Amino acid sequence: MSYRTNELGYPTDLLSSRAVVERGNFALIPPKGLVKNVLPHFDNCEMTILSTPKLGAGFVDYLCRVLPNGGNTHGFGGNGIQTFIYCLEGELTVTIGEETHELTTGGYAYCPPTETLKFKNNSDKATETFLYKKRYQEAEGFAPYKVIGNTNDMEDQNYEGMTDVGLKDLLPTDLNFDMNFHILTFHTGASHGYIETHYQEHGALLLSGEGMYNLDNHWIPVKEGDYIFMGAYNLQACYSVGRNAPLSYLYSKDCNRDVD
Ligand code: UGY
Ligand code: MN
Asked: Ligand 1: which of 186, 253, 254, 256 to mutate, judged by most atoms within 8 Å of the beta carbon?
């Protein structure tokens, strides 16, 4: 059985869920309610679809558990679709164009819209990944390029002058890119300085910790493993209660482009 039961055999998670879905505005999706999907060309991969245009997002996020020998060797993205993969845990061999790269935990690869992203798990354990795709918004004179990195090798920068909030930019901040991935880390008691209200969208995966997130003026408890979609103009801010770890999340943000 893949769900928890009480002593009478009754499913304990049937009576309530922390999930909140306000289409086009925001969604909090805790791990309990997620389901696995089978998708073409993702062989031996357990796929979970998160944000999609049906929710109001201009991008698609997924969780992808790559079983040993599994992967996507056909190619994900391309033809105007840029892609990104983040290795949450484990090892993965990624190929973009002619070149191959080994990702370990914290490693990531950005694949420009002119190429496809291929990956394979050559290890003997499952590899947990987070995947993203979005149509690239062209701007004359600019073109994005492949980026490979590992967040464990990167220093936190002070976020908006706060010493207890750290920021990592995973992609270059130049105009060749129409989006970026970041990691924000709030130490115990730290918070945003104000409630953001902006046009840009986010898909955020909580990597560690716990806290309270203001989503459109609903203060919602959140913790490691939760996924949050924040649509355009969704009011947003959080603070960390960080009893065991800082509140840290990986998130995407569109940037550097005028409105169509
Ligand atoms: O970059 C951002 O907009 C980010 N500070 N938003 C967020 O954390 N909800
Ligand atoms: Mn924001």
From this structure: 253
Instruction: Report the C-alpha gap between 153 and 48 in whole angstroms.
Output: 28
Ligand at shortest distance from the CA of 167 = 1
Residue 117 CB less than 6 A away from ligand 1 = no
Domains annotated on the chain, with CATH: 35-151 (2.60.120.10), 155-254 (2.60.120.10)
- pTM for the whole structure: 0.97
Q: For residues 184 and 250, is the Cβ–Cβ distance under 8 A? A: no
Answer yes or no: is pLDDT of 19 > 80. Answer: yes
Residue of higher predicted confidence among 4 and 91: 91
Ligand 1 site, residue 216, Cβ cutoff 6 A: no
Q: 34 with 48: CB under 8 angstroms?
A: yes
pLDDT tens, position by position, 121-172: 999 999 999 999 999 999 999 999 999 999 999 999 999 999 999 999 999 9
Atom of ligand 1 nearest to the CA of 249: 8
Give the residue whose CA is nearest to atom 1 of ligand 1. 253
Residue 236 to residue 70: CA distance in whole angstroms? 37
Instruction: Using most ligand atoms within 8 A of CB, pick from 184, 214, 219 the residue to mutate for ligand 1.
Output: 184
- Say whether pLDDT at 1 is over 70: no
Would the CA dihedral through 162, 163, 166, 172 be positive or negative? positive
- Does 253 score more than 70 pLDDT? yes
User: Is the CB of 236 within 6 Å of ligand 1?
Assistant: yes
Separation of alpha carbons 173 and 11, rounded Å: 47
